From TrEMBL:
Species of provenance: Carassius auratus
Subcellular location field: Cytoplasm; Nucleus
Residue spans of biased composition, Basic and acidic residues class: 755-777
Pfam families in the cross-refs: UBA_8 (PF22566), UCH (PF00443), USP_UIM_N (PF21909)
Protein name: Ubiquitin carboxyl-terminal hydrolase 25
Keywords from the UniProt entry: Coiled coil, Cytoplasm, Hydrolase, Isopeptide bond, Nucleus, Phosphoprotein, Protease, Repeat, Thiol protease, Ubl conjugation, Ubl conjugation pathway
Enzyme Commission number(s): 3.4.19.12
Ranges of compositional bias, category Polar residues: 503-513
Residues covered by the USP domain: 168-657
Chief localisation class: cytoplasm
CDD domains per UniProt: Peptidase_C19I (cd02665), UBA_UBP25 (cd14354), USP25_C (cd20486)
Length: 1063
């Protein structure tokens, strides 16, 4: 057979498989043989095939069942599907509207078939083309976005620099999180990584048939090598996979877009890689049967053993990804057991002829990489759309496959029969236990032991009156009157005593309670002691009570013992079932969990990421697009088992634990040293990565040079401003050889206004007080005393416990320094700078003190005060004031319900504050306060955008989606980055659920299209922090104005705060 004939045959086989998949999805029929029969009968006509299967579903003819169990051989058996996803929701075509539905299905399939005949492109290929084209289009669009938008990379290349030995991430270039999750999982299989990196294209590439070039497998393979080489040796934190994605996009032409499915993409990816390796294998082994490493790595075989009315059959089939149903099962083994057995299997190992039929699957060869596809989507016929199954499904980190192997067929059948028998016994015991725990014949059931206890309590109670209403009638007034009420009933006053009315019950109990408080139903939470807690029998003798109590005690003990025995027996059976396969003979085929691909969202939209085990560091890593972080088994369980945050595992990748070459590093043959980084790459890829690293290094150098120029320009501008601000002197001034003192702007201004005036007044007040207390009039003595006076005043402020609206740190930098335990030398120099202010020159005394202070500053040696540390403390204080301004403006706008304007102020207030708090708990403001209002602002914007979307008007809908895309979606990563903040996580879920709820509602097609395009962005779980290039420009506030406005807004928050604020 020529290469061209082989290729054409493979293409025909793939077309046949596509038709089988379409029939399976439409009709719900999962049996390959029946589907093949339908295609054979209809000569490939899909409409007739659907009609044929519909007829069989409606009539269920017994004479055709043999076809189902007689497994036919097909040429390319690796495409045979096992346990398809569609069998969870078989579409009913037997109703009254069967003909209309049948015609619609046939028309749809005929269009797909016609498209294939005209273009040679299958529906599966078109689906992949749509999402790839959308990804590339969005990526190109992102390059055209202006710098004010938030979807660009950080402009600082140092933020994008890879940390030493940290894995490299993949950039999401638009709905391509599925690509990242799959590629990272495969890349971390070191054997697969080596195969890709060391792949060399065929020498006769130009002579290959045209159909191979149309599929672009070889160019994609080359681009995948480039991508893998960057993941190995790049100096970037993450790399852009656009070129690899674009190769895929060019392979198939289409104009529509949709979120791609991980299992479909993985299947197609391995298919392309297999074709690429097959071409190379055929070239390398001319005349011999080629060996394809992709098949050896990812494909296995199983034996289908079936029986029909006593007639047995066996057939071997190949499989790649093994599909498993999730719905109705609690763990992976239950899914596997169900997938391995179809129908009644008793006659499979019975000598008697039986009408029962069924088939079993037994693995004869497992691949080194065993991939399970978890079917978590089903079609909801009522809503007319697919839905995701959020059920919890557990899976182990170590999976033993012995029980599913053909060589263990006999012992597994014995154990399965034993488990079946135990489960039947377990069902009986559970039913018996349920009768004890839910006793009764009515709608409400109670534990029988409790019922007996209640009966015992009733029998033991003593009656307080002969009638249940007698004591109430004698102490309460007739309805509608107040004549006999005690004073408190009408006036609200509490009487000191309450004497029972005449005729009320008397006796020992009544005599003991001379002072009885009145029961107040709205202010008293418990029933007063004079009222009986339970009803009581009126007529019972001591003998009757004694006999009854004895019986009830004995019966309750018997019931409790029976319950404990049943529970113990149930626990023992559960334990026996769990340990059924725990003997060493059934633990010889271990598979270790390598990767878990997680999907969060709904059936129509969502986000993918992967958990991948690092065997060398012995820990789990989370690969979420550009973000690669350390993780844990606990986090994996939370996100992958299901039932939490709409996230669950969609694909499980296990590797043979007895084949360490899959994850072993490569060693140099000469030196014996482990290869790492660029040393792992062949020469051509090493040159490629080095060139890319040089480009990145040049980008960082250019950035550093640009920042240095900006810093120099700022220094020159400050110096020029300082010179321009110096007062003109008409008289000759003595030369000043002292170095200029650059004071912080909040400590010295060029005019005696604002902060400087406030600071000057404090300083002069300290000087005056020092002069009044000090007899010696020398400037140095006055300076020392004045500094002590001022420091004592500020220290008192620092030690005072004040409410949030009166934060003394805003009034003076010294208070901030003392709060944060700054070094003593820093505090002393800061205080000395206050008294060295040139504005202290209005009288001779202040002027002389200022000169002494400036002289003392000059005498301070460089080793006495670390000026870099000094500047750092004052920079932190400047950032603290900026944070305060951002916070107060954001809160003011929030209180005015200007949420769009408030958001950016609150976002930057949180970011600045977080940087400060990282240095100390008192460096910034209350993080919970800022977090709360940032979260509330996003929730308000989300609600407003949803209301606009619900109007259905084009302008309002676009405005709502604009708010979501530009503000809410851009800020969601800021809430997700710290997963310890549970309220933020809940808020994100609330926002996502609000928009996901629209999926089941009827709406105009244009709205549905906008929603489908928007949801993937909202459901993207990446914690990539988008860069906000321009923070809001802050107004200049004096200290007094800042303190006053901050106090006002904090007071307003206190007055407006409600329990719903969650604070």
């Amino acid at each position: 057979m020529t290469v061209e004939q082989n290729v054409l045959q493979q293409h025909s086989q793939k077309h046949q498989q596509t038709l089988l998949n379409q029939l399976r999805e439409v009709t719900g029929t999962t049996d390959v043989q029946l589907l093949q029969q339908a295609l054979q009968v209809s000569n490939g006509d899909l409409a007739e095939a659907v009609a044929f299967l519909t007829e069989k579903n409606a009539k269920v003819p017994q004479q055709d069942e043999a076809t189902y169990y007689q497994t036919a051989q097909i040429t390319n058996d690796r495409y045979i599907s096992v346990g398809s996803q569609a069998d969870t929701n078989v579409i009913d075509l037997t109703g009254d509207d069967k003909d209309d539905l049948q015609r619609a299905i046939a028309l749809s399939l005929e269009e797909s078939n016609r498209a294939f005949r005209e273009t040679g492109i299958t529906d599966e290929e078109q689906a992949i083309s749509r999402v790839l084209e959308a990804s590339i289009a969005e990526n190109k669009a992102s390059l055209k976005r202006t710098h004010t938008e938030v979807w660009s990379d950080s402009p600082n290349p140092h933020d994008r620099k890879r940390q030493e030995n940290c894995p490299v991430g993949l950039k999401n270039v638009g709905n391509t999180c599925w690509f990242s999750a799959v590629i990272q999982s495969l890349f971390n299989l070191l054997e697969f990584q080596r195969l890709v990196l060391n792949y060399s294209p065929p020498a006769r590439m130009q002579d290959l048939p045209r159909i191979q070039k149309e599929h672009r497998n070889l160019p994609f393979m080359q681009e995948l090598r480039h991508l893998f080489s960057l993941l190995v040796g790049s100096k970037r934190k993450y790399v852009d996979p656009s070129r690899a994605v674009e190769i895929l996009k060019d392979a198939f032409k289409s104009s529509e877009s949709q979120q791609q499915d991980v299992s479909e993409f993985t299947h197609k990816l391995l298919d392309w890689l297999e074709d690429a390796f097959q071409i190379k294998a055929e070239e390398d082994r001319e005349g011999e049967k080629p060996k394809n490493p992709m098949v050896d790595l990812f494909y296995g075989r199983f034996l289908a053993v079936g029986v029909l009315e006593g007639k047995k059959f066996e057939n071997t089939e190949m499989f790649g990804q093994y599909p498993l149903q999730v719905n109705g099962f609690k763990d992976l083994h239950e899914c596997l057991e169900a997938a391995m057995i179809e129908g009644e299997i008793e006659s499979l190992h019975s000598a008697e002829n039986s009408a029962k039929s069924g088939q079993e699957h037994w693995f004869t060869k497992l691949p080194p990489v065993l991939t399970f596809e978890l079917s978590r989507f089903e079609f909801n016929q009522t809503l007319g759309r697919p839905e995701k199954i959020h059920n919890k499904l557990e899976f182990p980190s170590m999976l033993y496959m012995d029980r599913y192997m053909d060589r263990n067929r006999d012992i597994t059948r014995i154990k399965r029969e034993e488990i079946r028998r135990l489960k039947e016994h377990l069902t009986v015991l559970q039913q018996r236990l349920e009768r004890y725990l839910s006793y009764g014949s009515g709608p409400k059931r109670f534990p029988l032991a409790d019922v007996l206890q209640y009966a015992m309590e009733f029998a033991s109670s003593k009656p307080v009156c002969t009638s249940p209403v007698e004591d109430i009638n004698t102490t309460a007034p007739p309805a509608g009157t107040t004549a006999h009420l005690p004073p408190s009933a009408s006036t609200g006053e509490q009487p000191d005593t309450y004497v029972p009315a005449e005729g009320s019950s008397s006796g020992p109990q009544a005599q003991q309670h001379q002072r009885v408080s009145i029961h107040k139903p709205f202010t008293q939470s418990r029933v007063p002691p004079d009222l009986p807690m339970h009803p009581a029998p009126r007529h019972i003798t001591e003998e009757e009570l004694r006999v009854l109590e004895g019986c009830l005690h004995r019966w309750r003990s018997e019931v409790e013992n029976d319950t404990r025995d049943l529970q113990a027996s149930i626990s023992r059976i559960h334990r026996t079932i769990e340990l059924m396969y725990s003997d060493k003979s059934m633990m010889q085929v271990p598979y270790r969990l390598h990767a878990v691909l997680v999907h969060e969202g709904q059936a129509n939209a969502g986000h993918y990421w992967a958990y991948i085990f690092d065997p060398h560091q012995q820990r789990w890593m989370k690969y979420n697009d550009i973000s690669v972080t350390k993780s844990s088994w606990e986090e994996l369980v939370r996100d992958s088992f299901g039932g939490y945050r709409n996230a669950s595992a969609y694909c499980l990748m296990y590797i043979d634990d007895k084949k360490p070459f899959l994850i072993e590093e490569e060693f140099d043959k000469e030196t014996g040293q482990m290869l790492s980084g660029l040393d792992k790459l062949p020469p051509d890829l090493k040159e490629y990565v080095e060139a890319d690293n040089k480009l990145f290094e040049r980008e960082m150098k250019e950035w550093d040079a640009l920042q240095a120029r900006k810093l120099q320009q700022e220094k020159l501008a400050l110096a020029a401003a300082s010179v321009a601000a110096q007062p003109m002197c008409t008289e000759p001034c003595p030369p000043d050889n002292t170095a200029p003192q650059h004071d912080p702007e909040y400590m010295e201004q060029q005019s005696p206004t604002g902060d400087s005036k406030h600071l000057q007044e404090d300083t002069e007040r300290a000087i005056s007080k020092a002069a009044a207390e000090h007899d010696e009039k020398s400037p140095e003595a006055l300076l020392n005393t004045a500094m002590k006076v001022e420091y004592t005043r500020l220290l008192r402020f620092a030690q005072e416990d004040t409410p949030p609206e009166r934060d003394y740190r805003l009034q003076h930098v010294i208070v901030y320094l003392v709060h944060n335990q700054a070094p003593k030398k820093i505090v002393e120099r800061t205080l000395l700078m206050q008294f060295a202010d040139r504005n202290l020159g209005f009288d001779e005394r202040c002027k002389s003190i200022m000169k002494v202070a400036r002289a003392k500053l000059e005498l301070i040696e460089p080793d006495e005060v670390n000026m870099e540390e000094y500047e750092m403390w004052h920079q932190d204080y400047r950032k603290f004031r900026d944070t305060t301004v951002l916070l107060l403006i954001g809160l003011e706008l929030f209180l005015k319900k200007s949420y769009v304007e408030a958001l950016m102020y609150l976002i930057y207030a949180y970011q600045y504050n977080k940087e400060l708090l990282a240095k100390g708990p008192y460096r910034g403001h209350d993080e919970e306060l800022i977090t709360h209002y940032r979260r509330e602002c996003l929730l308000k914007l989300n609600e407003h955008a949803a209301v606009l979307f619900e109007t259905g008007e084009e302008i309002e809908v676009n405005a709502g989606l604009s708010i979501m895309n530009e503000l809410v979606v851009a800020c969601i990563p800021l809430l997700l980055v710290d997963e310890m903040e549970e309220k933020d996580m809940v808020a994100v879920e609330d926002m996502r659920n609000r928009w996901c709820s629209y999926l089941g509602q009827e709406m105009e097609p244009n709205l549905q299209e906008k929603l489908t395009d928007f949801l993937p962005k909202l459901l993207d779980c990446s914690t990539e922090i988008k860069s906000f290039h321009d923070p809001p420009k802050l107004p200049s506030y004096s200290t007094l104005e800042l303190c006053e406005r901050y106090g006002q807004v904090m007071t307003s928050l206190t007055l407006n705060r409600t329990p719903a604020d969650g604070r």
